Structure formats: structure tokens, C-alpha cells
Amino acid sequence: MIAPLVGTSWKMNLTPSLAAAYCAELRALVADVDDRTLFVLPPFPAIAAARAALTGSNVAWGAQDVHPDDSGAHTGDVSAPMLADLGCTLVEVGHHERRRDHHEDDELIARKVAAVQRWGMTAILCVGETSGRRRRQPRITSWNSFGSWTAVISRGWWLPTSPPGRSGSEPRARHRTGSPAFTPPSIGGWSTSPAGGPSR
Predict the structure, then answer these.
(1) Tens of pLDDT along 88-101?
(2) How open is the CA angle 60-194-104, to the nearest 5 degrees?
(3) Which residues, including other chains, have CB under 8 Å from residue 100's CB and lie 6 or more apart?
(4) Whole-model pTM above 0.85?
(5) In contact, 172 and 126? CB cutoff 8 Å
């Protein structure tokens, strides 16, 4: 049985110094938790601080995005080997904010998932939509107005390019060897504002 996943993506918040303090406090608070997988996804400049504070703990760390190429002239981007070298085990891809702000499409996101898997990490693939987009262009049912079904895709699995769009559906994946489809572990995600309310 796969342990439930509980974690947080920090978005564009917390400097490395603040991240170090946050992780040190978090480590102490959850030291006795052993029935679920805990993780944090800091912004890239704070990943090293998270690693330093969380190494040897029961909290994993990862990244919020990745470039599909392993290297090259991609100013400001971060590659999967860079993240792997920082000890990341999880990488979030396809978040609706990146789809919205950076116009990322399914093809690009699929390449990012492949890069994550190529370097031995697990992709946290965001496949939900905002309620507004759902009304305009029905595709995958969102878990709530501001979050998404977030499928955790490990090495060897892939998501269909056109998942079912019926109400209440969840993403389904198929193993590369052709074994029957399964429902991957899912995380219900919310986006929140600094004030604690929903973020659009």
C-alpha cells in the first residue's frame, strides 16, 4: 500500500534564510510522523537550504518546475540533473499557474515528466483545472475551484494524452509495458493567497 502524500509547494515565497528556519521547525514538529510521505517544494534558490535542514529527516524535498532538456542555452531555467544533484526526489510539473502564466501545453509538460523520470525522480503532475477553465473548455474535472487532482507519476508510467472529461473522473495511467491502466496516487491541491484565501 502506498503511504499518503502530504506536502506543500511554496510557490514564489521564502528566501533561503527563511526556508532554513522553516524547515528546521518543520523537522521537529513532524519527527514522529511515519504513516505518510511528507515533502516540501521550495523555490529553486531555497532548495539547498531545505536539503541542509532536512537531510536525515522524514521530510523529502523537491522542486516546483524543471526544463525538459538536461542542459543548453536556456537562460534562467533549471534542469533535472541539477535538481537530482540537490537531492530532490519530487518535481512538480504542469501546475495551472505555469499553464496560465507561461502558456505551457500538454506536449511540453509530457517532456518535463520524461526528464524527471530520466533522472530517477518522481513527477508530481498537476492535471486539474480552475473552475473557470473547466466551464470554457471541458477537459479534466477539477477537484475544486482552485486546486487539482495531482497525480504522482513514478518511473515507467504515463498518462493518456486525452484523459476522460466526465464529471468526477480522475487521471488514469498505464505502465509502459502495457499492463492495465490504474489510478495513480492523487493529492488534492489548493492554491492560496498570502491572506489564506483562494488564489485565482
Answers:
(1) 999 999 888 898 89
(2) 65
(3) none
(4) no
(5) no
